[in-house]
Design brief:
The complex is a heterotrimer of chains A (about 400), B (about 400) and C (about 230). Chain A is built from 13 helices and 15 strands. With about 400 residues, chain A is an alpha+beta fold. Chain B has about 400 residues and is mainly α. Chain B starts with 19 loop residues before the first strand and ends with a helix. The chains are: A alpha+beta (about 400), B mainly alpha (about 400), C alpha+beta (about 230). Chains B and C meet through strand 3, helix 1, helix 6, helix 8 and strand 6 of B and strand 3, helix 4 and strand 6 of C.
Amino acid sequence: MPVIKIDGREIPFEKGDSIIRAADRQGIEIPHYCWHPGLSVAANCRMCLVEVSRPGGRQLMLDVLAWDEEKKAYVPQKKPKLEPACQAECVEGMEVKSDSSPHVALARKSVQELLLVNHPVDCPICDQAGECKLQDYWLENQKTSKRMLDEPVHKPKAVIFGDTIVYDAERCIVCTRCVRFMEEVAGDAVLEKRERGNLSEIVLAAGRKLEGHYTMMVDHVCPVGALTTRDFRFKARVWFLRKSKTICPGCATGCNAWLDYDPRTGEVPRLRPRDNTDVNKYWMCDDGILSHRRVQQDRVTARASAGRTPASRSRRSRRRFRGRPAARRQGQDRLHPLGAARERGQLRPRHPGEEARRQGALRRQAARVGRRRDPARQGPQPEHARRHRGRG
Amino acid sequence: MEPTDYDIDESELDLPTEPMRLAMGPSHPAMHGTIRMMVECDGEMLTKVDVEMGFLHRGFEKMCERGTWAQCFPYTDRLNYVSPMLCNVGFAHAVEKLADIEITERCKWYRVVLGELARITDHLTCNAAMAMELGAFTPFLWMVRAREHIWDLLEEETGARLTHSFARIGGMAKPPTPLLKARLGEVIPAVRSIIDESMKLLLKNRIFLDRMQGVGVMSAAEAVQWGWTGPTLRSTGVAYDVRKAHPYLVYDQLDFDVPVGERGDNYDRYLVRNEEMYQSLRMLEQCVQKMPDDGPINVADRPEIVLPEKKDVYTTIEGTIQHFKLVMEGAKIPAGEVYGFTEGGNGELGFYIVSDGTGTPYRVRIRPPCVFVLQSFPRMIRGHMIADVVPTFGSVNMIGGECDR
Amino acid sequence: MSKVVLERVQAKFGAQVLETQSFRGDDTIVVARESWHDVAAFLRDDAVTDMAMFIDITAVDWPERAAEEAEEEGVPGAGKRFDLVLHLYSLGKGHRVRLKTRLADGEQPATVSDLWAAANWFEREVWDMFGIKFAGHPDMRRLLMYEEFEGHALRKDYAADRAQPLVPYRNTPDVLDKQAPFRADEGMPFGRRDWQPRDHAWTALDTETADRPLGEAVIVNPDNRRPS
């Protein structure tokens, strides 16, 4: 397999690979915003600029003026012309300088500073905070404070794009990942970019709204907090969540997904696509992403003894049962025989497997309870058991 | 009339005695801090002592492994809670050593000022409580009044009387107030006169002298063997003070003496602490002269570790991101291990910290100076009477938070 | 600062010294468990090292490192899980050293409480918090927690929010029974010495000299208080 060198390390590539893709496959990250492995190349964020020299090729040098601190003057200097790693195709024997080049470091720092020039101070209220590339790359590449003193450009906030997605133009860095996703993957070019420079923003096509089965993926391709789903918006802060691998329970495709849950309450606020090029590539449909609701809603969450329904339970006990995994509850709570529970609408045919399992458990349990409660066989009951029966 | 008891050799008397077991503490008026001493006495004489600690154990070291580095500061406040600023600064000192940060000149002076104020409150509390437990309530109230002056000043500076949480990695939470030097000019003479007066109250008092002198004696060699540091070690005559032996901050630019005792008894410990307060006041006077009035407090060139200014956090996205990253994920302290040590209120306050390069400490170990003294308490009290436990324990200055962690 | 200590120990113990390093001014010696006590005794008694002052003994738990080592060797539990860390200081010379050894779970290092009396309680704390027993320790009780406490709290696999079982009311073992009483010649039962006012000159601590004798400083006495 042919190889290129990135910072002196040999990286194999397949014909037609860009530098960033070859590096990505080897687990080397070249900072980027607009590039996405499943989308076409736009090369508009300029974050992935690297220093490239091709075998036999002449490296293009630019004349620049650099500030000299000692002379207190600008002095002419040469600087290599940097290329976006997402667009430059790998060639055998190519040598790339990424982290090792001071020119690349300066370029990244400048690009990052430019992207933050008009960015609002939104981290405390932004759902992306904690998994935002603007934050990560600031710490990795910029680390300077603001130099611009002007009022930033203001743009529309909380624009409703459809039933699922809200857009914030001020946070947007206009990488056009969402535009490309709708056009190339969803096949419905409903998003487009308007205006230029500072004023550019993402808008809906005239007379349309964001709809269809693949709208929520635009939140997951968005590298910043510009596009957020109305489902997850303001529900949780991501640093409180833990993730675990799962398979989307929605259909037989079996899309690979991350299940984000809150370890403090056991709630599952969202499902995210997990990359698997053999099954779902990088994508999931709206139905699948929203299936986290079905995991939690309308579940058997408590015992239903005679005369008591979940609605009549005290606040305290409701709090106690909320969000606990079904498997743990089962051992603790005695359930009423199935017929009564079904009458109250607590067991639903939506969960056939769970229903059947519980049915068997209930029958066995009911038999045991019957035996235990026979006073002739057991003698006087302990205090806690008497109280329990009197209440229930 | 001469008391005749002294003339009788005890061994000549064949009195039927039986040892009695007595639990002093964990709740006892003279056991400040919860601690239990099982003592066995023969009459008034102690024959055996066992000290049991841990009643105030809160898992300081375990808690530190859960949060970020910056989140350890409030815990350090609650170590030695009569001089929390010294613990604050001690922990910051250790983390800065590991992260290889040189703090700014003004910050060094500021830390010395706040630290020496805290040291005075520490010694005032110890000496006052020790006197009170011997029945001298007036000096106690008098010295606590001096402590009040200092706490007022610390409150003006930090916003809190006791649990300041004021140090930060690479600086302090806020720069000094413009009034600091003027207020120091008021507080120093007030505190000095109060210490003078309280000494006059105690040092001519026969009861106080009798119960302090020659009680709880420790020799220098044995004190070193037991790992004593701080005022207790100096009371035995060993002139080991971290501020002199390994100067940190700006202690090498300050003129001060290290007071030592001769016999290592309660009286020497009391005098050494008293003298250290005078020395701290001397240092504070020099700080008023030498401390720069302007200049940065926080280190500017380590944005990946040191928090940004609040003004930037609220108005610029760069500041917000920096703050967010440092607060939510924690400053990434380079992997490695160091032992950072400063002179705390009770002696060498050490922090052995291990980082694995993440925002959370891998291990934070504190060297609690008063445990060393407490450990040798049975040795100090050997052969004394029950009543001697009280002043001796008072002079140990056991602080529950630091001892049990 | 104390390179001389590292060299001295290396020259004396050779292959027993697994590793030495200096980082941010701290010097570390890692030794094999078998020579733990010997090296500590040498550090205390040798005229060059002169580590009379015991600073601290503690441990650090590295379960992941132990798992990796065990995997390499193919023996479960073979990995060295704990770092046992001893800090020492020389009052006379002013240098410090950190002595470390690596222990697998269940291995018992030799106690150093016979070298420094101060190590007694801190080795008990290491047992309490990490479950490392010290061979030859006179009184291997828990220090901060109670005897019925389950597990060792500072191990990494001890969950910080783990609840402990309630301990029923019981009589604690009487530790005083094991102790020998104070002897008659110990302490001062009656007739204390009278306090004599002392007359001493004020001397400042000389930090310049390398060998610092003990007790060169201001001697406190109410009568020689310098007027403020």
